[in-house]
Every structure is written in structure tokens, then in C-alpha cells.
Automatic annotation (TrEMBL):
Belongs to the major facilitator superfamily. Metabolite:H+ Symporter (MHS) family (TC 2.A.1.6) family. May be a proton symporter involved in the uptake of osmolytes such as proline and glycine betaine. The keyword Repressor does not apply. Its main location: membrane. It comes from Streptomyces natalensis ATCC 27448. The chain crosses the membrane at residues 20-38, 50-68, 180-199, 234-251, 271-288, 300-319, 325-345, 357-374, 394-412. This is Putative proline/betaine transporter. The lineage of its organism: Bacteria, Bacillati, Actinomycetota, Actinomycetes, Kitasatosporales. It is a multi-pass membrane protein. Keywords: Cell membrane, Membrane, Symport, Transmembrane, Transmembrane helix, Transport.
Length: 436
């Protein structure tokens, strides 16, 4: 692949890495900075309050999807990507410099709240903006490969955050982490966002968007009214996201908690399993994306849905009784290989469903809603079943979500060979655009 194409992939997806780094370190380092923003006395209550602020970010993601999706369709993909990284940088800086309770009382909490709102807006818009850019900026035979780097960068951000946490825990004292060192990841996140902002300022607009003759003439472009004209596609985005996002959160963010809390594995071993599995998962994404460029998107999506429908229950049961590192790693890798059928290509599939004038919003808003409803609640639902004494009920919940998505994958059209510049335009046989 030529150098210019690699540059587009890097600039288009790197923001996800910083986004997910920031998202991860807030949750991971909250145990160290929670006491800094609330009165001393009840550590558990302080942590709950801090994580309550964390939850605000999930509520802001659909808002960010709507606002930044509109910007992407009306002002261009470059404008949306530049704005998301600006919000990202601002949120990291605010957390890094937030005053403690001893200095400003609850003023520090207010700063945290604003920062999380900005972060939620940014994450809500970044997914669709980068998905749209990566899909449009690639040649038709490389869209699956290029868009797969979205999850490569997302996973890289999680791994970097986990690596930094481990490094600071081994080099800093507990007192230093609680006092000031917890600010380090947010300073690094702000610096990373600043670098991405600089790179994105010089990026080129996609030719698909630039060549759209209605780019600035249509007053309804990027509006909810225009999106309602594509209700079927919006529903497809939500339905195909449902099973994928639940499975993804189950085997990534929830995996460590499940191995330590339910399988009885030590936290250090569970973290190592998660780290190794995520690294292998990250490396699989481009391979699967490239495969979809050869055989189509639907075969991978169907493989994921069939695998998740029939393998989730046995994998989770076996993980619960995993005897050690290698058995847990093997089962985790099997699960993530199945999930790769969704994660590697979901960005381009969604972008390929919509015409240029509504593509960014069409991907952003339905995805953000589905992710908030199913992905963002996955851990809560899992713990709810566990607390109710029927933990296996969660396995069947994941299975049911995958089964719903399977029905969608079996009935949707193939999108691999679609001409992005002609999606939504009248043609003699609009429903016969199938993969060879």
C-alpha cells in the first residue's frame, strides 16, 4: 500500500487511540484520585461519586454523535475530526489541572464533570468521524482493511493505558499516586491529543465528500430530518451494533473482572490474560478487514453472529472454571477471534449504508444510541445477574443479542462493492449491489 494511504489510515484512526487511552485511564486511576475531590472519610462513597461522574460520559456520547455527525456532513470529515480531537485535548487538560477539594472545595468536582462531558462528546463523535473518513479515503477494494485500523487504534489505547498503570504502580509509591502522580496519564493524554490535532490540521478532505455537488447547497444535509429519510439504514446500524458491542465489552473490559471475581483468578493473572488477549485481538483486525475485501462483509458478520450465538455459553462456563493462565488465555482468544468478525469491519459496513450527505450522522447517532444501551450497560447487566445469583443469565443475554444481530446479517445486503459516491442515488437496480 502506498505511503499516502498509510498516512490517511494513521491520521484517521490515531484519535481513537488517544480517546480510548483517556477513557481507560479515568476508570483505572479513579481509585487514586477519588479522595482528592471529595471530603475525607468514606473511600467507597468517594469512588462511587467519581465513577458517577464517569458515567456522565456515556450519556453524552449520543449527543456527541448527533452534534459532530452533523458537523461531519455539513462542514466535512476533516472539520469533524479536528473538532473531536480539540474536545479530547481540552478534557484531558481539565482533569490534569483540576483543583482538589482542599484547594477549591467542590469546584474540582465541577471541573471533573465538565471534562467528562467534553470527553463524552468527543468519543461520541470520534467513532463516526473516523469510520467515515477511513472508509471514504480508501480505494473500494481496501475499505475493509483501512477501516479495521479503527479497532487497532482503540485497542492500542487500552493497552497503552494498562501499560502505563502497571508502570506507575511499579515505580511510584501509593502515596505519590494518590497525591500527584495520578495526573501523569492525563498530561500525556493531552499531549497526545495535541499531536493528533497538529496532524489532522494538514489532512486532506476525502474525495467522496469533496466531489459531492450538494456538499454546501442542501440545507437539510446532516440533519435529523435527513436521517429520518434513511430510517431503515439507521435501524440496521443499531441492530448490527447490538450483538457486536455486547460481545466486545464482555471479552474486553469485563473479562478481567470476570476472571478475578467469578473464576477466582488473581488480579495480576487476570490482567495479564486480558493484556495478551487484547494484543492478539489487535493484530487480527487488519487480517480480517483484508479478508472482507476479498469475500465480502456479510460472511464475516455471519461468522461472528453464529459463533457468538452458539459459543458464548460454553466459553463463559469454561472460563469460569479455567485452571490457570494458559487455559484462560486460550478461551479468551477463541472468543475474541469470533468477535473480530464484527469489530474488524463494522465501521465500513455502517458507512457503506448511507449516502455522502448523511453518512457521518447516519453512522454516529444510531451507533452511539446502541452502544449506550447495550455496550455501556454490559458490565452493569453482568453484575446484576451475578448479584441475583443467576450469573449464567448474562451468558444467555449475550447469546440473545448476538442472535438478533444474526437475523440482521442474514437479511441485509452485501456492501463491499458499493460505490460510496452513488449510495442513495437512483440507479436501474439499486438492490442488486452484491459481492461477487
Amino acid at each position: 500500500m502506498e505511503r499516502e494511504q498509510w498516512k490517511k489510515i494513521w491520521v484517521g484512526s490515531a484519535g481513537n487511540m488517544v480517546e480510548w487511552f483517556d477513557w481507560f485511564v479515568y476508570a483505572s486511576f479513579a481509585v487514586y484520585f477519588a479522595d482528592s475531590f471529595f471530603p475525607k472519610g468514606n473511600d467507597t462513597a468517594n469512588l462511587m461519586n467519581t465513577m458517577g461522574i464517569f458515567a456522565v460520559g456515556f450519556f453524552m456520547r449520543p449527543v456527541g454523535g448527533w452534534l459532530l455527525g452533523r458537523v461531519g456532513d455539513r462542514r466535512g470529515r476533516k472539520a469533524a475530526l479536528t473538532l473531536t480531537v480539540s474536545l479530547m485535548s481540552a478534557s484531558a487538560i481539565l482533569i490534569a489541572v483540576a483543583p482538589t477539594y482542599a484547594v477549591a472545595g467542590y469546584g474540582g468536582v465541577a471541573v471533573l464533570l465538565v471534562a467528562r462531558m467534553l470527553q463524552g462528546l468527543s468519543v461520541g463523535g470520534e467513532y463516526a468521524a473516523s469510520a467515515t473518513y477511513l472508509t471514504e479515503a480508501s480505494a473500494s477494494g481496501r475499505r475493509g482493511f483501512a477501516s479495521s485500523f479503527q479497532y487497532v487504534s482503540m485497542t492500542a489505547g487500552q493497552l497503552l493505558g494498562l501499560g502505563l498503570l502497571i508502570a506507575l504502580q511499579r515505580t511510584m509509591s501509593e502515596a505519590a499516586l494518590h497525591s500527584w502522580a495520578w495526573r501523569i496519564p492525563f498530561v500525556l493524554g493531552a499531549l497526545g491529543a495535541g499531536i493528533i490535532f497538529y496532524l489532522r490540521r494538514s489532512m486532506l478532505e476525502t474525495s467522496v465528500y469533496a466531489e459531492d455537488e450538494n456538499a454546501h447547497a442542501d440545507p437539510e444535509r446532516g440533519t435529523l430530518k435527513a436521517l429520518l429519510a434513511h430510517k431503515r439504514e439507521a435501524f440496521l446500524v443499531m441492530a448490527l451494533t447490538m450483538g457486536g458491542t455486547v460481545a466486545y465489552y464482555t471479552y474486553t473490559t469485563y473479562l478481567t473482572k470476570y476472571l478475578s471475581g467469578s473464576a477466582g483468578m488473581s488480579k495480576s493473572t487476570a490482567s495479564l490474560v486480558s493484556f495478551c488477549a487484547l494484543f492478539a485481538f489487535m493484530c487480527l483486525q487488519p487480517l480480517a478487514g483484508k479478508l472482507s475485501d476479498r469475500i465480502g462483509r456479510r460472511p464475516l458478520l455471519i461468522t461472528f453472529a453464529v459463533g457468538s450465538t452458539f459459543l458464548t455459553v460454553p466459553i463463559m462456563l469454561l472460563l469460569r472454571h479455567a485452571s490457570g493462565f494458559w487455559s484462560a488465555l486460550g478461551l479468551s482468544l477463541l472468543a475474541l477471534v469470533v468477535v473480530t468478525g464484527y469489530t474488524s469491519i463494522n465501521a465500513c459496513v455502517k458507512a457503506e449504508l448511507f449516502p455522502t450527505g448523511i453518512r457521518a450522522l447516519g453512522v454516529a447517532l444510531p451507533y452511539a444510541i446502541a452502544n449506550a444501551l447495550f455496550g455501556g450497560t454490559a458490565e452493569y447487566v453482568a453484575l446484576w445477574f451475578k448479584n441475583g445469583g443467576i450469573e449464567s443469565g448474562y451468558y444467555w443475554y449475550v447469546t440473545g443479542c448476538a442472535a438478533v444481530s444474526l437475523i440482521v446479517y442474514l437479511t441485509m445486503r452485501e456492501t463491499r462493492t458499493i460505490d460510496l459516491g452513488r449510495v442513495g442515488r437512483k440507479s436501474p437496480d439499486p438492490d442488486k449491489v452484491l459481492a461477487s
